[in-house]
């Protein structure tokens, strides 16, 4: 559900200038730890495979968010250079 909207949320924050790709990349370790906690809470039982099945897509979505944030940052820099 809502956790899979991560790229959209980060894209909006990046477009507003609240987060940068460098910040997201530097906090990757913390993000993966948070993803592990979220996946553990959202998946039932103590089966690690189900938790991993939730962690992998969330981690890939976080990485996609970094890529999208880089694209937004490049566009913002190009727009600023063209306007200056």
What is the N-to-C succession of helices and strands? HHHH
Mean pLDDT: 90
Shape: elongated
- Residue ranges: pLDDT <50 for 5 or more in a row? none
How many beta strands in the DSSP annotation? 0
Give the % helix.
over 70%
**Helix count, per DSSP?**
4
Helix-strand category: mainly alpha
Radius of gyration: 15 Å
Our estimate of the beta-strand percent is under 5%
Biggest sheet architecture: none
Distance between the termini: 42 Å
Give me the secondary-structure topology.
Elements: H1 6-15, H2 21-26, H3 28-42, H4 48-83
Helix pairs in contact: 1-4, 3-4
InterPro entries: TatC (IPR002033)
Membrane topology: Multi-pass membrane protein
Keywords: Membrane, Transmembrane, Transmembrane helix
In short:
By secondary structure, the protein is mainly alpha-helical. The protein contains four helices and no strands. It is found in: Membrane.
Outline the structure in words.
The protein has one domain (21-83). The model has no long low-confidence stretch (mean pLDDT 90). The chain has helices at residues 6-15, 21-26, 28-42, 48-83. The protein has 4 helices and no strands.
């Amino acid at each position: 559900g809502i956790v899979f909207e991560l790229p959209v949320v980060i894209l909006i924050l990046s477009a507003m200038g609240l987060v940068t790709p460098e910040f997201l990349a530097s906090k990757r370790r913390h993000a993966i730890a948070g993803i592990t906690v979220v996946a553990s809470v959202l998946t039932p039982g103590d089966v690690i495979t189900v938790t991993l099945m939730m962690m992998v897509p969330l981690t890939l979505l976080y990485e996609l968010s970094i890529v999208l944030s880089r694209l937004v940052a490049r566009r913002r820099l190009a727009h600023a250079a063209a306007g200056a």
